[in-house]
Every structure is written in C-alpha cells, then in structure tokens.
Amino acid sequence: MNTSEVIRARRSIRKYKENFAIPQKDIETMLEAAMMAPSACNTRPWEFVVVENPKIKEQIIEISPHTSMLHTASLAIVVCGRPDLQENICNAFWPQDCGAAIENLLLQATDLGYGTCWCGFYPVMDRVEKLQKLLQVTSIPLAVVAVGKPEQNPDARGFFEPSKVTYLK
Predict the structure, then answer these.
(1) CATH second-level architecture of 3-164?
(2) pLDDT band, very low/low/confident/very high, at 31 (cuts 50, 70, 90)
(3) Which Pfam families match (predicted)?
C-alpha cells in the first residue's frame, strides 16, 4: 500500500483473532516506525513497553475498561512519555511527540496487515499511576495500543469536512 492507502485503511479494531503471535521482526518494525516520528528538538521523549503476557493484559483491562479489546489482541504496546528529556530544552511537547509516534505505529501496523486500537491513559492520572505501578516504570503512560490480526473490518469513521477548514490567502 502507498501512504495514502494506509492512512485510509487504518481502523480502530476492537476484536482480534485469538492466539495469534506477531513475529518479533514485525513488532520491531512497528517500534522503529514509532521512533521515526518527529519530536521537539529531536528529544525523542518516549519509551515503549510491549506486553504479550495475558495476565498483565488483564490487569491493564482492570485499570481501564476501555482496553477490553486486549482480551483478544496479540499484544499491547504502551507508549510512555519522558518529559524529563525535554527539561530546559523544549519543555512540555512530549504529549504531541508521543502522539506522533503512536500514529506512525498505527500506520505501520496497518501496512503490515495488523489492526490496532489507540487507548488513551494520560492525562487521567489515576489510571496513569496504576499503569506505572503495574509496568514498574517512572515514565508517563500516555496510551496503550492494542495490536493483533483483525477479526472485524469496520467502516471508516474519518472523513473530510470542508467546513472545518479556513483558508487564509
């Protein structure tokens, strides 16, 4: 697929083929794509936790019921922010930078034939703190991305809305 096709093919998938193992090379390809994202002052204020353990996925669901698709997803990729890497350089841009990394990850997964669902955690600090404790990280869990072989093919929900565009010529 070309870039335009991948963007238009991406969907939020909430049901996956169970017991499907994603090859390590594909996981690394998705993570590499995420790390190719732009970041303020090239600070790359992110780290990633790949969760394949079913018990840990269940604990993530307990923290946030909005992640229930992890019941069938092959894995979760937790995207964590590192605001400390931007101190006194490019303060406070880490959420946007991590968002760019997440979008790259979603698009790469689509190109590889996987489905994804982006589940936000930050700025809901109660959930963030529980996920930090579960994953034993000090970075800030911004989102959990479910990844797996799609068991569904929902219609596109995105579309172009000319009324939301202002042109200044």
Answers:
(1) 3-Layer(aba) Sandwich (3.40)
(2) very high
(3) Nitroreductase
